[in-house]
Amino acid sequence: MTVTGSDIVELDRVAVYGAMRVVELAKDEDWERDTPCAGWTLRSLVAHMAAQHHGFAAAARGAGLEKARWRDPEDMREPARVHRVAATSVLAAFAEPGVLEQEFGLAELGLSVPGRTAVGFHLVDYVVHAWDVAATLGMDLDLPDEVLGAALAVARRVPTDPDRRGPGSPFAPALQVPEGTGALEETLRLLGRSPEEWLIRG
User: Fold this and answer.
1) 83, 120, 191, 200: most buried by Cβ count inside 10 Å?
2) Number of structural domains in the chain
3) Burial of residue 170, with CB atoms counted within 10 A of its CB: 0-12 exposed, 13-18 middle, 19 or more buried
C-alpha cells in the first residue's frame, strides 16, 4: 500500500480518534482491568498512550529527544480526560505546516527519523493501542480499511530480529501469521499480540 505524506497525517488522525472513542467508553470499574499489554492495567495503558501523544507532539516541535517529554502523566484519576487532552495536542502538532519535512527525535529509540516515518510509527501505535483498549473492554474495533492497510504496511517494516524484540524493547516478539489473516490481525500478530486469546476472554 502506497500512502502519501498528507494521507499519513489524515490516516493517523482517524486512528487517534478511533482510540479516543474506545477509551471514552471505559467505565470506572474498567480501569484496573488487565490488558493485552502484559503487566499493564487499562489505567496504566492509557497513561502510556497519553505519554506517547505528548512525546510525539514534542518531537514534531523539535524536542522529542528530551526524555521528560515522554513520561507518563502523574495524575491519572480521570484517564479518559488525560488521554483526550494528549490526543488533541499531538493532532494539533501533526497538523502544523511542514511537519513531515522535519526530523523527529524519538527518545525511546534514541534516534531521529523523518516526519513522515514518525507519523507512520504513531499511526501503527494507535491502531494497536486502540485494539488493546477495545479488547480489554470486550469490544470490536472499527477502523477504516485504509487506516488498517497503512498500519500493516508500517508493521511489516518493523525489524523482527530477537535483539530488537521482547523485554526492554518497544515491541514483543512477532507471532506467526496464518494465511488469509486480515490486516488488523496481521498487524497485531506482527507486533506480538494474540487476538484469539482476547476473543476468548471477551
Assistant:
1) 83
2) 1
3) middle
